Amino acid sequence: MELLKQRILEEGRAAEGGVLKVDSFLNHQMDISLLNAIGKEFSHRFAEEEITKLLTIEASGIGIAAITAQHFGNVPVVFAKKTKSRNLDGELYTAQVHSFTRGSTYEIQVSQKYLKPQDRVLIVDDFLAKGQALEGLLKIVGESGAKLIGCGIVIEKGFQDGGKRLREKGIRIESLAVVSDIAEDKVIFAE
Ligand code: 5GP
């Protein structure tokens, strides 16, 4: 997606450990016009699919999914929570996620009320790196009995192995920008 790549080139910053910072338009301040274009692009890529629910993970996924949902007929957005909350009542689906950027493992949770076997789920997230966050969400979809349609990722870091590993399992992943390298603050795209 050219508009997105251009923005990454202009404003993306390399941080330690192969981390790409895009705080000015995606992870802290959010550019709503860009998010709208991202949502539209996801809807084109999954145009032939019936989607009944978007699933993401807090925090950065929420804004992306909420705007994307408007391009999928305002389907509900469910976001996995990273902290135990008293507001989360009833039975939960849970998964352990290891974050390499944070160097810690945490549990994600989704109420069983909001994912049902009849759902057709598109997972949406900001980054795909080693694939741990996606694997946690995939486990939850699997346990719910819902049908996974695919994953829409804003930025995939192709130099980490998550995308390759998950595609090898037959999961459809549509990434709008695939970064192949971040060398001396210069971002290089795969295609
Ligand atoms: P994974 O589980 O695929 O290794 O990482 C996915 C999660 O880690 C994303 O949801 C994102 O929050 C965070 N993450 C991984 N790599 C980066 C990065 O280079 N930049 C930013 N901003 N977040 C990242």
Would you mind describing this structure in some detail?
With 191 residues, this protein is α/β, with parallel strands linked by helices. Helices cover 31% and strands 35% of the residues. The chain has 6 helices and 10 strands; from the N terminus they run αββααβαββββαβαββ. It has helices at 2-11, 23-27, 32-45, 60-69, 132-144, 162-168; strands at 13-15, 19-21, 53-57, 77-80, 92-99, 104-111, 120-128, 147-157, 173-183, 186-189. A 6-stranded mixed β-sheet has the order 4-3-7-8-9-10, sandwiched between helices. Strands 1-2 form a two-stranded antiparallel ribbon. A two-stranded antiparallel sheet has the order 5-6. The radius of gyration is 16 Å and the shape is globular. The model has no long low-confidence stretch (mean pLDDT 95). Guanosine-5'-monophosphate (5GP) is lined by residues 19-22, 27, 60, 99-101, 125-133, 157, 162.
Question: How are the SSEs ordered, and which strands pair?
Answer:
Elements: H1 2-11, E1 13-15, E2 19-21, H2 23-27, H3 32-45, E3 53-57, H4 60-69, E4 77-80, E5 92-99, E6 104-111, E7 120-128, H5 132-144, E8 147-157, H6 162-168, E9 173-183, E10 186-189
Parallel strand pairs: 3-4, 3-7, 7-8, 8-9
Antiparallel strand pairs: 1-2, 5-6, 9-10
**What's the end-to-end separation, in Å?**
10 Å
Order of helices and strands: HEEHHEHEEEEHEHEE
Largest sheet: 6 strands, mixed
The helix fraction, in percent, is 25-40%
- Radius of gyration equals 16 Å
Number of extended strands: 10
Number of helices: 6
Give the overall shape. Answer: globular
Q: Which distinct ligands sit in these coordinates?
A: guanosine-5'-monophosphate
Assess the beta-strand content as a share of residues: 25-35%
| Average pLDDT score | 95
Oligomerization state = single chain
Strand order of the largest sheet: 4-3-7-8-9-10
- Which runs of at least 5 residues are low in confidence (pLDDT < 50)? none
Structural class: alpha/beta
